[in-house]
Amino acid sequence: MTLACAHSVSKASAMTLRKTQTHRLPTGEREIAIGGHVAGIDEAGRGCLAGPVCAAAVILPPHLLTEDLGFRDSKLLSAKKRAVLAQLIQREAQVGIALVSSQDIDRINILNAAMRAMAKAVAALPSPPDHCLIDGNRVPGELACPATAVIGGDRLCFSIAAASIIAKTHRDALMQQLHKAYPAYEWARNAGYGTRAHLKALELVGPSPHHRRSFKPLRQ
Fold first, then answer.
1. Whole-prediction pTM value?
2. Which residue has better confidence, 216 or 214?
């Protein structure tokens, strides 16, 4: 029987998480307390104007839950540090990666696309997890295991931070490849985000097939 058990974070606990996440570093405490194979889930590219949304699921082995090797929210790390950690994670952990295209984002909206990418990333893991820790305040409805949403999870949990690193490095590499075909938008630098150069290119040459037509700058 398929389980789809989601534990919502209460307002009080959410406030507590926000207060504490700026005063501490990520740990593996939640994963160890839950026990079994716990997957951290995060996504990258939700706010971009172009390209897919990318999600990653990571099950860290026990020895990576007890030692701080520098897993952090990917936005807090340099590209060089992310690359080094991504190689470590790919080598030592179980990893699942999934993409949802810009066309699907336009069709089902970015929130549903991000949830779908997360569920697909979990399904892409080499072995199914016993529990999932999801960055944010929502849990994908398609998961076949219990899950917990953790606000600011990429700054609290090693496995979510590791998923954040994998999702961003994978998506950035993809946008680097797309830049070669569409250099006007400078995706190698902005990864599809709405920078001044990106918006200027949209004015001059219009959108590409990889742009999200439902997003405000494209609608205008």
1. 0.88
2. 214
